[in-house]
Amino acid sequence: MVLKARKAEIIKEFGQNDKDTGRAEVQIALLTDDIRNLTEHLQLHKKDITSRRSLLKKVSQRKHHLNFLIKNDFERYKAIIAKLNLRK
65-83 as b/e, with b when 16 or more CB fall inside 10 Å? Predict the structure, then answer.
C-alpha cells in the first residue's frame, strides 16, 4: 500500500499536474511502487497467499498499461521503462 505522501510525490513526478492520476505513466509508477513493496513483504512472509495474489494482480495491471503505451506512444513507453528501471 502506498502512503498518501509517497502517492502524491509519484503523481507530481509522472503526471502533468498534481491531480493527473489517470495518465498511464502515473498508474504504471504507482503499480511499480506497490509491486516493489509487496515483493519485499513476500520475501519475509513466504506463506502470505493473499499478498501473493495481490502482487500477481498488480503485475498484470501494469502489463496492460505498458501494452497500451506500446500500441499508442512508443516514445512514452521507452521513457517510462528507463525512468522506472524496468527490464523490458
Answer: bbeebeeeeeeebeebbee
Integer angstrom CA distances of residue 17 from 10, 13, 31, 70, 71: 11, 9, 19, 23, 24
Q: Where are the domains of the chain?
A: 4-84
Return the CA Rg of the chain. Answer: 14
Which residue type is seen at 70?
I
The CATH architecture one would assign to domain 4-84 is Orthogonal Bundle (1.10)
pLDDT tens digits, residue range 50-77?
Answer: 999 999 999 999 999 999 999 999 999 9
**Among 81, 2, 80, 88, CA closest to 37:** 2
Distance CA 16, CA 39 (A): 29
- Sign of the torsion angle spanned by Cα atoms 31, 37, 43, 44: negative
pTM of the model: 0.91
